[in-house]
């Protein structure tokens, strides 16, 4: 499943908020559920949808996603920071 993170997601998302960050907003738009969280455990990110965990083995372009989360959470926007991108999630 292709997930597009847009400028709108970036501007309306809340950094460091696992349910309302830009990634969660993009996922909610596509998957049609509010029960989505983007989590970090031991410096590895994963996505939780309706209590099911999707780790880096289920996320194509995981390194890009990880870089985006880091930039977004630290407020680095545009010019190589958090910018619109897409990733594939194997559900």
Number of strands: 6
**Sequence stretches where pLDDT stays below 50 over 5 or more residues:** none
Average pLDDT confidence is: 94
Overall 3D form: globular
- Strand line-up in the sheet with most strands: 1-6-5
For the record, give the distance between the C-alpha atoms at the N and C termini, rounded to a whole number: 7 Å
Strand content: 25-35%
Q: Could you walk me through the main structural features you see in this protein, from its secondary elements to its overall organization?
A:
- The chain has 91 residues and is of the alpha+beta class.
- The chain has one domain (2-89).
- The protein has helices at residues 7-12, 22-31, 62-73; strands at 2-5, 36-41, 44-49, 52-54, 59-60, 85-89.
- The strands form two sheets. Strands 1-6-5 form a three-stranded antiparallel β-sheet. It has a three-stranded antiparallel β-sheet with strand order 2-3-4, covered by helices on one side.
- Strand 3 and strand 4 form a beta hairpin.
- The radius of gyration is 12 Å and the shape is globular.
- The N and C termini lie close together (7 Å).
- The model has no long low-confidence stretch (mean pLDDT 94).
Summary tags:
3 helices; globular; 3-stranded antiparallel β-sheet; 6 strands; alpha+beta; 91 residues
In short:
31% of the residues lie in helices and 29% in strands. The protein is α+β, with helices and mostly antiparallel strands.
């Amino acid at each position: 499943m292709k997930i597009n993170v847009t400028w709108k997601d970036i501007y309306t998302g809340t950094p460091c908020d696992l349910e309302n960050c830009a990634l969660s907003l993009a996922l909610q738009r596509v998957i049609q559920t509010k029960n989505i969280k983007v989590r970090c455990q031991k410096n590895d990110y994963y996505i939780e949808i309706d209590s099911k965990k999707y780790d880096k083995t289920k996320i194509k372009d995981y390194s890009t996603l990880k870089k985006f989360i880091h930039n977004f959470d630290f407020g680095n926007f545009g010019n190589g920071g958090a910018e619109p991108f897409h990733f594939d999630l194997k559900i």
